[in-house]
Amino acid sequence: MNKLITLFIGILFCSYHSFSQYYYIPASSAGNPGGLNGDSEYPSGSGLDPSWTVILGPSQSSPTWSSIETIPFSFNFNGSSVTQYKVSSTGVLTFSNLTAPAVPGAGNAALPDPAIPDNSVMIWGIEGTGANDNICTKTFGTSGSQQHWIFFTSYTAGSWSYWSIVLEEGTDKIYIVDQRHSSAASPQVTAGIQIDATTATMVSGSPTLANVAGSSALPDDNHYYEFIYGNQSAVDAAGVAVTTFPYLILGNAPFTISGELTNLGSNTITSMDINYSIDGGTPVTESLSNLTINTYDNYTFDHSSTWNPSSSGTYDIAIWASNINGSTDMDPSNDTIVGTVNVFTSFETRRPMFEVFTSSTCGPCVQGNINLGNVLSNYSEQYSLLKYQMSWPGNGDPYFTDEGYDRRVFYGVNSVPRLEIDGGYDGNPSGLTNQDFDDFAAIPSFTTLSANYSIGGQSVDVSITIDPLENMNSTNLTLYTGIFEYITYNNSSSNGEIEFANVMKKMLPDAGGYSINPLQAGVQVVENFSYTFQGNYTLPPDANSPVNHMLNHTVEDFENLGVVVWIQDDVTKEILQSTTASLVTDVNSDLTAASNIMIFPNPTSDIATIAFQGHKDSELEINIVNLLGEIVISERFTASSSLDYYNLNVSHLNSGIYNVVLVSNGTSTTKQLQIIK
Length: 677
Known about the structure:
By secondary structure, the chain is mainly β. The chain contains four helices and 41 strands.
């Protein structure tokens, strides 16, 4: 009888392993799994934290196994304990036959494949042939919840390409992390797990799986695939996000509740109920049929039953799916997602904030800048604009800065040209339309924002005033300030552009901005910033040697600086309001001399500010003269103070060079003004 029981247990054990498997879930958000690894992604010996250990060196001209490595914690693979592994220069990690199997070649294929040893995890198709190609390891976290990383640093896939395999203590999960890639890289890999010659799990797209992450050396744009031991739930719909706009005007009610769900089950979803509830109240349900939501597909919806709040306030909206294909969701832990919505009664006209990622080495950026300029020309003084010159293609723009890079990482931008509008539009500026502008301008704002700035020598002083109209309870608000140069010329490179508009020069106090407390209606907030550009002008050779603000600057003309300010929720990316600061005065030159005047911005397309000093109570005549000697604008103005300025509307004039002639007490002063449309 004992023999029969033993035989029966043995049959159960074999059967269990024959049908055991892994399934995977693609990451729903960017970054590294669990956030334990925050190290920057650089080659070993050339920027990678030295705490990483090299287990296989570079320049492997033929496929090679690493040394046999010990896992630094207890770990189960496919239901059984494993303690060691080795990894190949072709992206394959194996737990079994550590001394015997042949090394898989770099020519990857679909799984299962006879070239792959049993019990293996892989990013098959990359190669360690380059001089910087190393496999490194490091363990993160504390005992009980550690992660052991096997990092393919600067591996080769057309160009440099970074990937990792991660083993997680406690959960026995395995992650394949897509990390960093040259714009010239073209990885086509097989990502997955092979148990034996008949059982394997591949990431969809394998064996030609391409990268999702971009070229950032930070983890912010990483993407990972989470492999879980066991059987995937057949029915599993998970909440992703509440997408209803988070700031609403009570007078515009009723509101549509919008959301996003994903299918994590193995079965295609053909029908389901979608639900929402406000502050934990009675669920509102809509039944949907004739759906085709495949595994790992996302589904966005606008609920058919609108919500009509009775008063202003802050509300929590929960969304979830139920009755999926007529069945109960098999994993209720991920069903519900909650978002916060603020309903207000007072509002302000929004001034959209345009952030452009571009480069003088980018051919398509030319048309992007042209189209953007054409659209914005219809909306004088109704928007804010800041451009970040980027580090690619090629060697990138010489006016690339580390702060521009930080903004790129903030948005996850991996292509140029790229346009962000109020954190809610992510697209190519070549496709921008007047309707796009109108749509963003129509979104209400709930705060008034104004700013002034002055320039003295190489110093810029900025004063910002925030007047909230409603309570803004978010703890994630940041005040951003960018100093820009209206027109630059010296950074021209290979794309044919010879002048560049609204180029970011410095952010205050830095790219991280200044955190502000939740805003309270009627409670004014005033913030002041000052920055002095250090040293002398420098033109970096390219983006590989960005300006060091501690030593030099890249300002071509201090008389041509502007300042843009915006308030942003760093979690939702929503920009609540923006403004372009007004010039109070510029004292770069000795304005006490009657022969000097300042013009800002110069060039301009619409408004030119004429600043002057020493003419209190004097009547001034301001003439704009074209190159033919014709007076095209003539205006008179009485200065009310010793230091004064006059805003001149030149929006109706054609592009070109004009002379600005200031006449006071029989004495005239002339300065050139460039108008660019």
